[in-house]
Amino acid sequence: MDQHQKGAPPLPPVEKLRPGVWSIPVPLPMTSLGHVFVYLFEADDGAYVVDAGWNTDEAFGAVESGLALAGYEITDLRGVMVTHVHPDHYGLAGRLREASGAWISLHPADAGLIQNRYIDPAELLTRMSAMMRRAGAPEDLIESLTRAAMPVLPLVDPVLPDILLEDGDRPEVTGWDLKAIWTPGHSPGHLCFWEPVNEVLLSGDHVLPRITPNIPFHPQAGDNPLGDFVASLDKVDQYPAREVLPAHEHRFVDLHGRVEQLKAHHEHRFVEIVAALRSGVTTSWGVAERMAWSRSWDSIAGFMKRAALAEALAHLRALERRGVVREVDGEPSTWELLED
Ligand SMILES: [Zn+2]
Ligand SMILES: [Zn+2]
Predict the structure, then answer these.
(1) What is the spatial distance between Cα 314 and Cα 213, in angstroms, rounded to a whole number?
(2) What is the distance in A from the centroid of ligand 1 to the CA of 206?
């Protein structure tokens, strides 16, 4: 969350980053992020990419022309390693596979979400509206917030992966020794990839240079996504990255510094939430309303508002695990501070 809603940044050029490694910016519709980076690895038997983009003609064209600059045709694509199941990373993967015969890989925790999220979302919508009610969302907003992600469905080709990558697995990318690092938090099956020759970390949405990734608690998240996220930050911090290649914004150095900033950001959020509860707020919605966002709470709408609420819930769950707060059942449920 905390995404700035400024105009989308201009599309950077396709660049060769290292021998055999390319960055291909792929434009995103409907988002201030502007683009997702598809990273290409050259191999003797073709090309392999990390992430794909939304399922739009423009995105397909951007991948195709990026491949061409690196000397490949779409039919040379051998593998698509998707970092996580969000539409801007996974949406186009099926179409790339169809055009090339490439395999698609995902972590099993995200592969397991495809059916309920993209193919038959009825049950997920029911659970989402129950979550809204429990959180204390105003009755007149529940329906629209529940359905807030539905407009993206046409931009996702809901295919199942050919390969499941677990933590530490090495995808078959000819001539490379990429390693999948499971980094749950932003999504339950998020993967980063470590490339040991150039010592670069492909960080997906897990670590971005400027914005803080949204860490949502919702029916398709784990029990404590924020706790998972912080543990996943410590996990990638073990790698001696010379440079981080994120899925959005821009490349950066100083992974450790960024990890520390992100951890500090969430500690600050905890302080904010405890202060909100001390001031007498009791529901999850009330807590979200009191937290500082990049815009005023009233001007946040639709999917962004749901993401903000889900982020507040993720912090409350993490505080519950720490023994700082307790949730009292009800509709809405209420939160109590456990003072010692
Ligand atoms: Zn994402
Ligand atoms: Zn993303």
Answers:
(1) 13
(2) 8
